[in-house]
Fold this protein.
Amino acid sequence: MIKKCLFPAAGYGTRFLPATKAMPKEMLPVLTRPLIEYGVEEAVQAGMTTMAIVTGRGKRAIEDHFDISYELEHQIKGTSKEPLLNSIRSLINKCTFSYTRQVEMKGLGHAILTGETLIGDEAFAVVLADDLCDGNGNGGVLTQMVKLYEKYQCCIVAIEEVPKEDTNKYGVIAGNEIDDGIFMVTDMVEKPDPKDAPSNLAIIGRYILTPDIFDIIRETKPGKGGEIQITDALLTQAKKGMVIAYKFKGERFDCGSVDGFVEATNYFYAKSKEEPKTAKKK
């Protein structure tokens, strides 16, 4: 069983300035919950209880969110507002949260390597909180990936089809389809120009990684943008052994962009209005 989930959360969130000047982008709310809380809930649904968070300067709000606020709870105790804390209280009770800091922003690969001290020598999941996902009745994306891991016992990346002109925003894979929506990776390229992209299958912010990835990252030289890219490390692993790409079932919103953030807000707002109706029908 995979019990640990790593959240790289040290980025500056510059696409949301000035809102993210003093507030972590992971704390931007979609309806009444911050992005990172959705990610933690997805990890819990997949059976994970240890949340390892790689933070940076100005990210203390994340630690405070996953902690008890005695003054606030005292003020609203016994009022109609108290139940609003039920979901976050549940996560705090179910999970252990640990933190370390990424001192320099050197790419996603480096952020994952920074989290090694929190993960240890075991397989783990990675969630990028600004990729907000909804399984849409198929179980969470991590739940789907854990089932695959139980079968293949190797690194797994979640992928989706994107317009060819958008491949320069993602890591992109090429591979052989070995089952419906499941590919054995043969190539991975970080943010290729559309004319050079090996496919339109883009990696999104959900990974399951085996612990040997840490040593591979240590040997990985800076790539695109002078950063240590997790795609480069995973390509090395794919050449040595096996990496699976999985076309997940559900919806994904790029909440690192304003357009995606608005789409996610509208989607979850509409969904929140439908849920009571569904309950009444039952």
User: Anything to note?
Assistant: The two ends are 34 Å apart (CA to CA). The chain has one domain: 4-281. Residues 278-282 have pLDDT under 50 and may be disordered. The first strand starts at residue 4 and ends at 8.
